[in-house]
Automatic annotation (TrEMBL), chain A:
Keyword Zinc-finger part of the UniProt annotation: no
A GO biological-process term: lactate metabolic process
Gene3D superfamilies reported for this sequence: Alpha-helical ferredoxin, NagB/RpiA/CoA transferase-like
Superkingdom of the source species: Bacteria
Pfam family, one: LutB_C
Species of provenance: Chryseobacterium lactis
Keywords, comma-separated and alphabetical: 4Fe-4S, Electron transport, Iron, Iron-sulfur, Metal-binding, Repeat, Transport
GO molecular function: 4 iron, 4 sulfur cluster binding; metal ion binding
Name by which UniProt lists this protein: 4Fe-4S ferredoxin
Keyword Glycoprotein included in the entry's annotation: no
From TrEMBL, chain B:
Annotated protein name in UniProt: Lactate utilization protein B/C
Domain of life: Bacteria
Gene3D superfamilies xrefs: NagB/RpiA/CoA transferase-like (3.40.50.10420)
PANTHER family: LACTATE UTILIZATION PROTEIN C
Stretches assigned to the LUD domain: 35-193
Pfam families: LUD_dom (PF02589)
């Protein structure tokens, strides 16, 4: 079965890669710490960002309508899509209207969620991802493994091989500078020939009808300012009330995600260029339903910075692909099962519940609490893993009755002393990647009765 | 319009009770000297910084450092005659800017905490120019540097069709987190700060 545990097991076969992946992401997490400590009122920033987003959730419909009204007045065309299918159809119909054959695309996790590339390719449109990391995984025919660092799982030698195979790069190249230059030259051609450009949206401002796209590479802008058609896709939670709020979110976004004080380019699109067609697609795809779930609605505040990925001990050691979804990591482990319980019920268990994700979240999503709550719901609905269900039941039985517990304890102790292989084997899931503890000669209770009850 | 009504109705039913919008946006700046803080931030972003007394120093710099056959576009008021012949066709077809080597534009607000510079559509003239050019030169008046991003947003105007903050050269760290300058946009970013 394709679930997080089995996919993580595959990733864990190569221990060196796991160590390397872990360290690379921890390096990003440390950069985030350094940046956040340089802002004296970091906690106030987080608090205000969280409050603005809560206000957005309370007024989501009115802000969306205000945004729509202002964007229309600015000459932008607005579309609404209830699900991924409708979103993809809208994109295709715009492209068909303009007889577009080639489209460049800047990073958008929403289009990954909607599987747009496959859909467009099936319909005869060539899509080129232009963010370097996304381009690499696109050439490798893989999905991104991280929302901000899409090819963080790949080593530079592997990227060299991909470029050799697809971009005529010399064999054996692994220098990031040279590889980036090859991609730059290749993608420049794509930018110049594309009739349409698609981008995501980081923030849509209700007050002004504008939207902001943040990149370090400048790929979104290279695409949109050359193409005659710009399509921007947003999940409906991306709205913020006022332009002045951008000051809060732009200070938090890059610092939390990559440890930069701001991204290189923070582009504010308000009106199409003369002669250009600009479209915004506002996508629901389960978000309005999510909004109604009180315990979990807080996770709709997410601004997709990726900080919770970088800090998560499970993500760092299991790799993004083990989450088998567009948005991986702790936040993906909430958003996906809420949208589709059946396919993603394994994800809330891909967490140590250590709370590190909650601590770094710039908009104060209580990630670990929501993961815990989701587990309760999944277990209660009977769709948990049967082996865990069985052992939990056994545990509950022995812990609920002191006599049963004493008997159980003696049996285990005796058994462990003479037949340790019964626990130290591959069948015991707890033994995987763990040493079993040494069994003490006497239990605390025995020690206590001997030493303390004597009055010593 | 079916989906629009559907979505809005679902949101209306699902949304939580009112959460108030915060109003206190006063934040602490650690910058003791705005110019110094800005310059340090710009350098750590990978930008070159030159302090100048007069706009003409940019032209001198270009004469001394840029080969004469390089294509330069000068978008600073009063220096239009430094330009090659610019025709309106560029506005209609931004692809014609593909071969620009150096673009010189003016920024309107600098932010000390992160060296981001606010540039409006009027200032860049062609939206794609700051990205498609190989090297970007930005002139900024020292007295237009503000401490924090919030201060910048208090004075930005919204009438432009496209405007942005640029904080350095185009960069990426997508390959094993090694920082590479010069991804798709300008390979270098040179700030001329007019005292």
């Amino acid at each position: 079965m394709r679930n997080h545990a089995s996919l993580a097991e595959q990733f864990n076969l190569d221990e060196n890669r796991v160590d390397w992946h872990n360290k690379t992401l921890w390096f990003v997490r440390e950069k985030r710490d350094k940046q956040s400590h340089q802002v004296p009122d970091w906690e106030k920033l987080r608090e205000i960002a969280s409050k603005i987003k809560l206000n957005v959730l309370s007024n989501l419909d009115t802000y969306l309508m205000e945004f729509e009204k202002n964007a229309l007045a600015n000459g932008i065309q607005i579309h609404w899509a209830k699900d991924a299918e409708e979103h993809n159809e809208i994109v295709l119909s715009i492209l068909k209207d303009h007889q577009v054959k080639y489209m460049v695309k800047s990073k958008s996790m929403l289009t990954e969620e909607c599987h747009l590339n496959e859909y467009l390719e099936k319909n005869g449109i060539e899509v080129t991802d232009t963010d370097l990391g996304e381009r690499i995984v696109q050439l490798a025919k893989e999905p991104p493994s991280h929302v901000v660092l899409p090819c963080i799982h790949k080593k530079k030698e592997e990227i060299g091989e991909i470029f050799h195979k697809h971009l005529n790069a010399p064999e054996g190249l692994s220098d990031p500078q040279q590889l980036t230059e090859i991609a730059r030259q290749d993608l420049r051609k794509k930018f110049l020939q594309s009739q349409a450009a698609l981008t995501g949206i980081n923030f849509a401002v209700a007050e002004t009808g504008e939207f902001v796209v943040c990149t370090n590479e400048g790929n979104a802008d290279m695409g949109t300012h050359l193409a005659n058609v710009h399509i921007a896709c947003m999940g409906l939670e991306k709205i913020i009330p006022k332009r002045e709020h951008l000051g809060i979110f732009l200070r938090l976004l890059a610092r939390s995600g990559t440890g930069q004080s701001i991204t290189t380019y923070s582009s504010h699109f308000r009106k199409p260029r003369a002669g250009q067609d600009m479209h915004i697609i506002i996508v629901d795809n389960g978000r309005s339903e999510h909004l109604g779930k009180e315990k979990f609605r807080n996770s709709l505040k997410c601004i997709r910075c990726g900080a919770c990925f970088n800090t998560c001990p499970v993500y760092r050691r299991s790799g993004g692909h083990s989450y088998h979804t567009a948005v991986a990591g702790p936040i993906g482990s909430i958003l996906n099962p809420i949208r589709n319980r059946e396919d993603y019920k394994d994800l809330p268990f891909a967490s140590t519940l250590c709370g590190s994700c909650t601590n770094v979240c710039p908009v104060k999503i209580d990630l670990h609490n929501q993961l815990y709550e989701l587990r309760q719901e999944i277990i209660a609905s009977g769709s948990g893993e049967s082996i865990k269900g069985f052992s939990m039941k056994m545990m509950a039985r022995s812990l609920s009755n002191i006599k049963k517990y004493e008997k159980f304890k003696r049996t285990v102790k005796w058994g462990y002393r003479y037949t340790p292989f019964l626990l130290k084997n591959k069948i015991n899931p707890w033994y995987k990647h763990r040493e079993m503890p040494e069994m003490p000669k006497e239990s605390f209770k025995e020690w206590y009765q001997k030493n303390i009850s004597d009055g010593k | 319009m079916g989906s629009r009504e559907d979505i809005l109705t679902k949101i209306k039913k699902a949304k939580p009770a009112e959460n108030e919008l915060p109003t206190d946006f006063s934040f602490i700046s650690t910058a003791e000297n705005l110019l110094e803080t800005f310059v340090a931030a710009a350098q750590s972003n990978g930008s070159q910084v030159t302090l100048i007394e007069d706009e003409k120093e940019i032209i001198n710099y270009i004469t001394e450092n840029i080969a004469s056959d390089e294509r330069i576009i000068f978008n600073i008021k009063g220096f239009e005659d430094e330009n090659e012949e610019l025709e309106d066709q560029y506005i209609n077809d931004p692809h014609k800017l593909e071969s620009v080597d150096v673009a010189v534009i003016e920024g309107s607000i600098g932010v000390a905490e992160n060296a981001a510079v606010w540039i409006t559509e009027n200032q860049m003239k062609y939206r794609v120019l700051p990205f498609i050019t190989q090297h970007l030169f930005v002139m900024l008046k020292a007295d237009s540097i503000v401490p924090l991003l919030h201060d910048a947003y208090k004075i930005t105007k919204v009438e432009d069709g496209f405007s942005l903050f640029i904080s350095g050269p185009s960069k990426t760290a997508d390959i094993e987190q090694s920082l590479v300058i010069g991804a798709h946009g300008a390979r270098s970013h040179h700030l001329f700060i007019l005292k």
